[in-house]
Amino acid sequence: MACPFFRRADSLVRQPSVTVEPGAQWNLEDEELSLADDALTLTHLQMAIQLLTAPSNEDLNTAVTSLVAKYRQSWPNIHKLKLDPKFFKSCANYDYLADIQDLLLKMDEASASEILVLLGEELITCCCTGIIERAFRCLGTDLQEFLGSLDGVYDVLKLQEDDVTDTGFVCAGDGELIFTSERPVIAWLLLGSLKALTRMLYKVDVNIKIEPVEGDARRYRYLFSLVKDSSQTLQLGRPGVAAKQPETMQRSNSANASDLQMNSASFCKMFPWHFIMNEQLELVQLGRGFSKLYKPYLADFGCLASTYFDFKRPKGLTMKFRDIVRRTYTPFLIGLNSPPGVSDFPAIGLEIKGQMVHCPESNSLLFIGSPFLDGLDGLTCNGLFISDIPLHDATREVILVGEQARAQDGLRRRMDKLKSSIEEANSAVTKERKKNVSLLHLIFPAEIAEKLWLGSSIDAKTYPDVTILFSDIVGFTNICSRATPFMVISMLEGLYKDFDEFCDFFDVYKVETIGDAYCVASGLHRASIYDAHKVAWMALKMLSACSKRITHDGEQIKMRIGLHTGTVLAGVVGRKMPRYCLFGHNVTIANKFESGSEALKINVSPTTKNWLTKHEGFAFDLQPRDPSCLPKEFPNSNGNGTCYFLESFRNPALDSTQPLEEHINAAMKTISEGGDA
C-alpha cells in the first residue's frame, strides 16, 4: 500500500495531541456536583469528538497496547509503538501521535496506512465505552444522520471554544464525509475510527475509501460503501431498511417565487415537529419527528389528535376546530401522550412549543413547533437524537451551547425570526396550494380533486344516467396529410379553446382529447335532470363554432357528434399522470353513435332523446333516422327504436328569429333559477 504520509514528518510542526490552555481542561467533577452521574452533557460530546480528531496520549497508548497484542506476529516490530503510561504524566505536552508517525515510516512504510487504520479501530473498541458511547449514539439513529450531526455539532463546539484551527467535518452527501486536518496521520486514524463506530453503533460493516480533495492537501474525502458491494455508495439509512428513492418531481424553470413547489415529503423533512389537522381534528400529516414516534400506532388507535397530544396552552382551550382557529395568535404548548396500552413509550411527557396556523385553502390547522428541552440529557431521556432537531431550529443550539441564560436569549431572537420566516413561507405555500388546487380542478371533477388534494383513497364509482358526447373531425387524416404538424396543432388549439369554454359554461366534465377526438360527460360530479340538455346544447354550439373555423387550405372544419345516456363506471387510473376515466358498455355505445353520425350532424341515441323530451319548456328539433342506423350494440328490446339527428333548439319564451345562442342562454338561465343546473 502506498505511504499515507505524502508530506514527511519533518515538514510538519510537531504539536501536542491535546492543546492545553489555561481553564480549558475538561473536568467532569464540577459537572457531577450538579448533574446525575449518568447525565449526558456537552462536555461528554466534546470528549467523544476529541477521540476522533485529537485523541489523548493515554487513549492512544491503550489502543496501541491492544493493537500490539493482536498483531505482533504480523508486524514483529510493532511493539516499539508501545510506551510506559507513567511517561505521559511527566511529559504532559508530549506528542505521542507524531512519534507513532515517525516510527511507522522507519519500521514499515508500505504497511503504515494499514496499521493506522487498525489503530483507529482499536481506539474506538478500547476507549469508546460508557458515557462516550452514549454521546456518539445521541448524534443520530443511523449512519447518515450521524455524519450530518458530526458536521453541525463540531462546528458549534469550535465556535464555543473559539477554536481557530481549520480542523472540521463536512457531510457532503449520502455516504460522503470530508475531513480537514493539517496532519495526515489523523486522517488515516479517523478512517479506522469511523469503521469501528459504524460497526459498534449501527451494526453495519462498511468499506471506507479515503482520497485527498483535489486542490487542497489538508482535506480528505471519505466514501462509504457496503462491504458486500464496495463499488456502490452506501445508502446510509437505518440498518436493515432499504433506502427509498425520492419521488421525482417535475422541476419548474420559472424564476418566480410563486411558481416554486414543495411536496409534503420535503416539508416533513424540513419541519419534523409539525402536524396538520382537518375539521374533525384528525391528523392528516405528520412531520418526521412525530411520525417516528406515532406512525406505528395510527392504524390501531386512529388519527384523532387528542389521542396523542395534550394541549397544555393556551389555558382553557376547548378541543373544537373553530375555537382553535380563534387562538392562532397565541403560543401553543403541546405535551406528548403515550398511545393507549403502550407502557414503554420513550417520549412520554415531551413538550413541543410552537404556533398554530389556520390554512383556509384546505380548511385545516397546521401546528409547527420545536421540542421544549433544557439540555442534551433532556434530549436523550426523551428518546430523541441531535439529528431529530433540524439545523435551522434554535433549539439545536440551546442544547449544544449549554449556557441557559445565553441560550434562552438567543432562542427568543431566533424564534422571532423563525416566526416571521414561517409566516412568509406559509404565505408562499398558500399561494402555491391555491395554484395546485386550481390545477387539480382543471383535470378532475371537484369532488375527486378535493380527495386527491387531501390524499384520500379514491374508489371507482358507478354513475347512472350520464350523458356522454363523442366527436371527431371528418377527414382529419387527409387534413393532416396536407398540413404541417404546427398547422394541425394551431387548428386544434383554436377549436378546442372554444370547446373548453363551452365546458365551463355548461358545467360539464371534459373527459379527454386524443387527436381530433373530443369527449365530454355530464352527470358525473353534479347530477341534474338537465344533464342531457346541457350536452345537447354544447353539441349545437360545437357545430356552430366549427362553422367559423377553417383548415389551413380554406375548407370548413366539419365535425360529427354522437350523444348517448346510460350508466357508466368512473375512477382514477394511474399514479404517474393519473386520468379520470369512464368505463362500461354505454361508453362504447356512445362512441358508436359518434362513428354512425354524419358531417355537421349530431347523432342522438333513443335514451338521450327520452331525456331531452321528458321535461316541458324545451323544444329540441329531433329528426328520426332509419332504424338500420341504430348501432347493433344498442339494446333494442322491442325492435322499434331508432336514433335521431338533433337539428336545432328553440326556447318557447323567445321569438324563433332569435339566434341559437340566445335560445340556449335563456334556457340555461331558466334551469339555473330553478336550482337544477
From TrEMBL:
Coiled-coil stretches: 408-435
Protein origin, superkingdom: Eukaryota
A Pfam family of this chain: HNOB
All copies of domain Guanylate cyclase, residue ranges: 467-594
GO annotation, cellular component aspect: guanylate cyclase complex, soluble
Keywords assigned by UniProt, alphabetized: cGMP biosynthesis, Coiled coil, Cytoplasm, GTP-binding, Lyase, Nucleotide-binding
Subcellular location: Cytoplasm
Family: Belongs to the adenylyl cyclase class-4/guanylyl cyclase family.
The name this protein goes by in its record: guanylate cyclase
Organism: Drosophila grimshawi (Hawaiian fruit fly)
Designated gene of the protein: Dgri\GH18909
